[in-house]
Amino acid sequence: MRQSNASRVVAAIFLGVLFGLYRHFQQTRLLAQGRDAYLVDQGKFFDKVAQYHSSVTMLIAGVVIAAIVFGLYEAIAAVFGKFIRPVEVEE
Predict the structure, then answer these.
(1) Cα R_g (the chain), whole angstroms
(2) pLDDT, tens only, 48-64
(3) Which residue, 82, 81, 89, is CA-closest to 6?
(4) Which residues contact 31 (CB under 8 A, 6 or more apart)?
(5) Domain locations in the chain as residue ranges
(6) Cα 79–80–81 angle (5° rounding)?
(7) DSSP 8-state secondary structure symbol assigned to residue 4
(8) Do 76 and 11 touch, CB atoms closer than 8 A?
(9) Rounded distance, CA 76 to CA 65, Å?
(10) Looking at the whole model, is its pTM more than 0.70?
């Protein structure tokens, strides 16, 4: 069975919206605590990044995260593919 390309587009938009909402609420929560709390959090993040920065570990983590995101994308596209049927064109 052929899968609709529209389901892949909808899946990409869906994941983008979810990520955008996550970042929005994360930033809103952090900004609600005030400037000092925001700067303290950014300082902690910088200290964590500066403390450990192995290239091999970051490459492995990047590949694992990319595989997880791609798998999630394909699963969501398959679910949307059940609802969005491909357009049949007669020649």
Answers:
(1) 20
(2) 888 877 888 889 999 99
(3) 81
(4) 38
(5) 5-82
(6) 90
(7) P
(8) yes
(9) 16
(10) no
